[in-house]
Each structure stands twice: as structure tokens, then as C-alpha cells.
Write a structure and sequence with these properties.
The chain is mostly beta strands. It has strands at about 1-5, 10-25, 30-35, 35-40, 45-55, 65-85, 90-115, 120-135, 155-165. It is elongated.
Length: about 170
């Protein structure tokens, strides 16, 4: 969901809320330890993102290229079953959960097609770069023994939109 306002049909300020739910697949660590091999369990992730964007629209015709920047806050929750060493998982009623926070900065590139003064279609690409992140103490990272945590990875969003202007 996005809400915003235009100034002189040149600048726009928008606020966006995104929700996503997905499952992260296990990550296998092939290194042997005294406890055996370790396989991370499937994790259910709920992600809540709020962003503020400033956009500049080129030209005044029907098709308007758009460039801009944004700042985004992400809150994620994770749930997974307990995992035992030696490759097995204990899928009983016990679940572990964690949460995380991240702040991202990004750039926007796209185009709007104005059909009239009240209706337009848009296509956007948003590239996000992590600025800061933290997880609570029991958070399982994206790759438990190597790599980066999900919160510290960059991301992108491609969106198509229909806008109604009041």
C-alpha cells in the first residue's frame, strides 16, 4: 500500500507499507564438528517494511521517467522447529522464534504513464542497500556458520502500480 502527494507534477513524496511471508530453506554446513553435521531448519519469515520516498518526474508529457531515493525500516519475525546435531530435526510442538530490525537506503528508477489527470500506471525498480541491522539474542542468522545475515543483505523490489489521484 502506498500513499503520497505530488508537487507541481514534478516531485512526489510517498509512504509505502509492504508485508511479505516466505519460508527460508535449510542451509547445510558440510564441516564436521564433534557434534556432527548441522542443517538449519526451514524458517517461516514475516517481513513488515515501511518506507518514505522522494521522487523526481522528468518531462510533462504522457510518459514520465522517474528517479528517486528512499529510506526503509524492516521488521522481521522468524519461527523454526528445534534442530538437533547430527542432521536430525525435532519437529514437535516446540518452536523457536526471533526477530530483527533493519534500516535500508535505496534508489528508485521507473516510469509513469499518465492517462489523464486522475489515473496513471507505473513501473518501478527499487534497489536497497542495508545501512544498519540488529537481531535479538536467539536469532538464527541466514547462514549459521558462514555468510551474511538476511538483514544485512541488499535487496530489490520491482513493482507495477495503478494510481488514482484525488
Amino acid at each position: 500500500a502506498t500513499f503520497g502527494t505530488k508537487f507541481d507534477n514534478t516531485y512526489a513524496v510517498e509512504g509505502t507499507f509492504l508485508f511479505s511471508n516466505y519460508t527460508m530453506n535449510p542451509v547445510y554446513n558440510g564441516n564436521y564438528s564433534p557434534y556432527g553435521y548441522y542443517t538449519a531448519p526451514d524458517m517461516e519469515v514475516n517481513s513488515y517494511s515501511g518506507s518514505v520516498a522522494l521522487k523526481y518526474m522528468f518531462f510533462s508529457g504522457m510518459v514520465k521517467p522517474v528517479l528517486g531515493g528512499l529510506a526503509q525500516y524492516n521488521y522481521r519475525t522468524y519461527k523454526w522447529a528445534h534442530t538437533t546435531f547430527g542432521g536430525g530435526s525435532n519437529y514437535d510442538s516446540d518452536e523457536t522464534s526471533a526477530n530483527s530490525h533493519a534500516i535500508d537506503l535505496g534508489v528508485i528508477a521507473g516510469a509513469d504513464i499518465d492517462f489523464n489527470s486522475k489515473f496513471s500506471l507505473g513501473l518501478e525498480y527499487r534497489q536497497l542497500f542495508n545501512l544498519s541491522s540488529r537481531r535479538n539474542s536467539n536469532a538464527l542468522v541466514y547462514q549459521p556458520f558462514y555468510g551474511k545475515a538476511l538483514e544485512s543483505l541488499g535487496s530489490y523490489i520491482i513493482s507495477m502500480s495503478a494510481r488514482v489521484q484525488f
